[in-house]
Write a structure and sequence with these properties.
There is one protein chain. This protein has 322 residues and is α/β, with parallel strands linked by helices. Helices cover 45% and strands 13% of the residues. It contains 14 helices and nine strands. Strands 1, 2, 3, 4, 5, 6, 7, 8 and 9 form a nine-stranded mixed beta sheet that branches. β2, α2 and β3 form a beta-alpha-beta unit. The longest helix is centred in the middle third of the chain and has 20 residues. Bound molecules: phosphoenolpyruvate and magnesium ion (MG). Magnesium ion (MG) binds next to α9. One of its GO terms (molecular function) is metal ion binding.
Length: 322
């Protein structure tokens, strides 16, 4: 297995029919970048910046953030670095000064970024100044409206123009992406994919909010069903709509690591995955077993099924047959 992993690490992933599938890493700390090459990762598809928050709930200073992001971009270049803006609140670091009755439906993600401009401005300035190699993209967490996307997009433009006018070294404007992790974002996917450079599907939160099942509540864990027909259909809609609008689309939720999900996602048209690095060799090996045509037929069949067990059984039969 180890020998197989090391061979896979140095190969790009292709389907059996030769279609290229890119596989990046989800990371929480800069130090993880050192290990990316060994797993065959093609870059960072999701960097969860909330880990940079300090113990006393103060956001890190701009200079410290800039140095941190710049070091990451430097280590990675020319590979991509997708920096997700602070996704605080909810099940993550609780920032709210009041005890919220239901933090997952409360003050979190982009809502905090919009309400507390110091946090947003500091992070955007740091990210823009760190983009000296042009390999940084910005990802916005917990999007549920077009106004939220526009707010962050305009803030990026404003800071970029200002920083450029100060005569900083030549800097490229970071690309801008939206997390698709709320049912509202799925409903708005046509509009969202017309105004961003890319979208990234967060199946962890998308499953939680679509099925009203707390992702961390053990009592209802059996109901946290990523192969629920509602999720399966949303994924198809997001991927195909993004492609129709020529907007890049990737998955960064844990579902991307699941060997049962991979042929379905490829069948929907997905070509970019971002997953935990340790799962990359296995995903690359999985991808090589199927042709796109087989995956498309599988996806069409799954989309007709109306029960999670039937969908799972179909995916299991497909994987077993290869
Ligand atoms: C997700 O929600 O699927 C996701 C990738 O983000 P996080 O797990 O950090 O909420
Ligand atoms: Mg999320």
């Amino acid at each position: 297995r180890e020998a197989d992993d090391s061979i896979m690490a140095h190969r790009h992933a292709f389907t059996r029919c030769g279609v290229r599938i890119s596989v990046c890493s989800n990371i929480d700390f800069k130090e993880e970048i050192e290990h990316l090459d060994a797993t065959g990762s093609e870059g960072v598809g999701l960097f969860r910046t909330e880990n940079l928050f300090l113990d006393d709930l103060k956001p890190p200073k701009e200079a410290a953030q800039q140095e941190y992001y710049r070091a990451m971009a430097e280590m990675l270049t020319p590979k991509p670095l997708v920096i997700r803006l602070f996704d605080i609140g909810g099940d993550k670091l609780i920032y709210s000064p009041v005890k919220e009755p239901n933090p997952n439906l409360g003050w979190r993600g982009v809502r905090i970024l919009i309400d507390v401009p110091e946090i947003l401005d500091t992070q955007l300035q740091a990210v823009i100044k760190a983009n000296i190699h042009g390999n940084i993209d910005v990802l916005i967490p917990m999007i549920s409206s077009i106004e939220e996307v526009m707010h962050i997009k305009q803030a990026i433009e404003k800071h970029y123009d200002h920083i450029k006018s100060l005569g900083h070294e030549p800097l490229e404007k970071p690309g801008i992406g939206a997390m698709i992790e709320m049912p509202a974002a799925v409903e708005l996917i046509d509009e969202i994919t017309r105004i961003v450079d890319f979208v990234s599907i967060g199946t962890n939160d998308l499953t939680q909010y679509t099925l009203a099942v707390d992702r961390n509540n053990l009592i209802v864990q059996d109901l946290f069903e990523k192969f629920h027909p509602a999720i399966i259909r949303q994924l198809h809609r997001v991927i195909t709509t993004a492609q129709r609008n020529r907007c890049r689309v990737s998955i960064c939720g844990d579902m991307g690591s699941d060997p049962l999900a991979a042929p379905y996602l490829i069948g929907c048209g997905l070509r970019e995955f971002s997953i935990v690095s340790s799962d990359i060799p296995a995903l690359k090996a999985t991808v090589g077993k199927y042709t796109v045509e087989e995956c498309e037929a599988l996806a069409a069949e799954c989309l007709k099924l109306s029960g999670s067990s039937a969908i799972k059984a179909r995916l299991e039969a497909f994987v077993k047959a290869h």
